[in-house]
Amino acid sequence: MSNNSSHSYSQILKSTSLVGGSQVINILLGIVRMKILAVLLGPSGLGLIGLYNAILGILGTITNMGIGSSGVRQIAEAAASKDNQRISLTILTVRKVTLLFGFLGMLVMFSLCRPLSLLSFGSFKYSWAIAILSITLFLGSISGGQIALIQGLRKITYLARLSVLGAFLGTITSIPIIFLWRENGIVPFLIAVSAMTVLTSWWYSRKIPILIMNVPWRKTFQEAKSLLSLGFVFMTTSLMGAMVIYLIRILVVRKFGVNGVGLYQAAITLSSIYIGVIISAMGMDFFPRLTAAAKDNGTCNRLVNEQTEVGILIAAPGVIATLIFTPMVLQVFYSESFLPAYDVLRWQVLGTFFRVLSWPIGYILLAKGKGRIFFFTELTANIFHVLFVWAGISYLGLEGTGIAFFAQYLFVTIMIFIVCRRITDFLWTNNVLHILIITLCCVIVAFLLPKFASESCSITLGIILTLLSIGYSLWKLSHLIGPECITNYSSWFKSLLKFRSTK
């Protein structure tokens, strides 16, 4: 293996570990937060939070115009030019535009609070709650612009730190609100979490020096044209995703009530926690790297394959462990009242494995600026997801939502592979296929064990399978990055634990 390849794998592992380390802390905080919320609010309370977040997701996506995502790409391109004036102009444009659209979003949600309450809950009971929640759109837009700056310049350490600090502050400030006011505290709880994200993203974004420039609004709008052009694509695709989340929750609440939404929300949250480590690493570091190499198909395909190898190896042990210990996971994170989400969660976890497989390939379209193709692939995927969920609920009950999630990502993996094959001649390497076959077989066995073996036998064999998967992943990762990179990586990680480098 070449030194360049070893360095690339090491860089991927570093970013994944850095983001992963912050996510581990976030997961621990999340366990505390979700456990307390589950005990204090129950499934109906979590269902209400899920519906509020679905509303915020839709309106936030529309009014934000995709500036956060397109801003990352624009800042990454500007950073590649090494032109400080261009970098500063892009950053200032992103900041001003996100501020403007965040304020407009807040006004829109406030004015639509009554029809949104009627559409979502069938009454005007929650109108004022939705009106007050409009504040979170403004706060989210501000933090989105600040995070785009940090991510576009690939300040991964800052991203990890603000993630941990934001989660910590959000937990200690929001949990007392729920404890004191129970369900009446859900709206202040969501606002407090958003406020802490703004505070921490501002703290770290201010550490990045930029040129002081007087940019009039006319110049800002001129510079924002390309930002909004790509942002519109991000907005429409994100809007589709937010609409799908909203529609699915509406379908579930109509069929199973708010309690059913709470069970579905619990399953979808748990299935995404561990995989979120890998996905976050892709979004934070992989996307800017791929954007810089987007014009070279060979390099682009190599980076995707390398990211896929590392992603699968890191994801597999967590997926297998979750499949084996699903009842325990539900009770640890929530409570016994959430055990009816057992089958939903297991199907969703199986789907997340294919999510890890498909996401690196999908970034090819974003890095190359193939907005139209990206839009249609997302449109197709979302249409199929809604159809799968509708059919699943109709014929299989709540478990059908989990099966639909799995079917969606299996379909997306096949579709996105075919599309990117035509664009860059993309193919998985033999190394990827070898790792994929072994890990996928282990995942399938872990999924089937509880169905065909007794509980004690399933857990015993599951523990052995999980340990074997961990050993295989560590062995393959050490082979990929090489002994020298392991030494350098160890030194880097030890210095990272100090949280601040010493001179």
Task: Characterize the structure shown.
By secondary structure, the protein is mainly alpha-helical. It has one domain. 88% of the residues lie in helices and 0% in strands. α2 packs parallel to α5 and α13 packs antiparallel against α14. The longest helix is centred in the N-terminal third of the chain and has 62 residues.
Question: Gist?
Answer:
With 503 residues, the protein is mainly α. The chain is 88% helix and 0% strand.
Helix percentage? over 70%
Q: What is the CA–CA distance across the termini? A: 34 Å
Tell me, rounded to a whole number, the average pLDDT.
80
* Poorly predicted sequence stretches spanning 5 or more consecutive residues: 499-503
Which band does the percent of strand residues land in? under 5%
Q: In angstroms, what is the radius of gyration?
A: 22 Å
- Domain unit count: 1
Counting DSSP H or I runs of 4 or more residues, the number of helices is 16
Number of strands: 0
Largest sheet: none
Structural class: mainly alpha
